[in-house]
Structures are given as structure tokens and as C-alpha cells.
What we know:
By secondary structure, this protein is an alpha+beta fold. The protein has helices at about 1-25, 55-85, 90-100, 105-115, 135-174, and strands at about 45-50, 115-120, 125-135. Strand 2 and strand 3 (about 125-135) form a beta hairpin.
Amino acid sequence: MIEGIALALMKTLATYLFKNYILMQSQITIEGAPKWYMQNVSNQVCVYDHQTGGMEAVDKAKAATYPKMKKELSNILEAVIFDNYSDLKDPKEKKFVMMFKDDPNAQIFIRKTMSFPAIEYKKNEQIAFVKACIQKDVILKYQEKRTKTIKYELTHKRADNAFEELESDDMKLE
């Protein structure tokens, strides 16, 4: 049962990332911004930021993209879950989906895999523009690994609970 949900979640996530996600993103042109700013790429999930100030604005803009990416990835997972798994009845399936949705290591994953393919500082205007991206296939592989970990945790916890239950029943017999 959990195996089926894990497989279905991954299929749904892949479909969402590679078909629906890019269609849902707006192409925005902002006067004074670089051409690449707010222009999404089909094989990546990207976030953007701009900051004003001296050269330190580049670092501030880069730093601002980390929480934006975390929110973007969270929104993607929520959309996948809401559209397909919001009406689950089985508590184990619900727990699996909630564990999938709430990723305690998201920040680490983002810091490790996010790249900055475009950074531009306009000296005269004193404004920095930053584009930060993660490849969609990297996101998918990471989520596949997470589903395996979650399945393992849930099945072993269930096994441990079963052993504890057997041991408590044995104690009652004595």
C-alpha cells in the first residue's frame, strides 16, 4: 500500500515538474532588469531576487534566494499532494504523505544543489539581479531517495511496534 503511494507520488511529481510546472510559470519582463530575469527554463526550477546597494547587494540577493527556493519546492510538493492525495483514509498512507511533504533536510539539499547561473550587478543603478536554479532531474532523484527512506522508516517502525506488541503479549502469558 505505501509502496504504491510512493510510486504514484513520484510519477505525479515527475509529471508536474516536467509538464505542468513550466506551463504555470509566467514570463515576466521588467524594464531595467536583465533579459534572463524572471524567465524560467524548462529543465530547472528557478527563483529570482534583486537587491539595491553597493556590491554587497549581490550577496544579499543570493542569500534571499535560499528561502525562496525552499518555499518554491514546498509549493510544488503541496500542489502534487493536494491534487492527488488529499483524501487518503488510511492513517499509514496519510503519515507517509505528510512525511513526504515535510522535509527536514530541504535546506541542506538546497544549499548543496542550487546554482547561480546568472548574476548581474548594474553599477550605475546600484542593483543586483540573481537567478538561482536546481535541475528538475536532481529534485526528482532527491525525492525518490526520500521516499525510500520514509518507506524504510515506516516499515521498520511498524516492525518494531509489532515486536513490542508480541513481547508485551508474552509478558501477559507468564
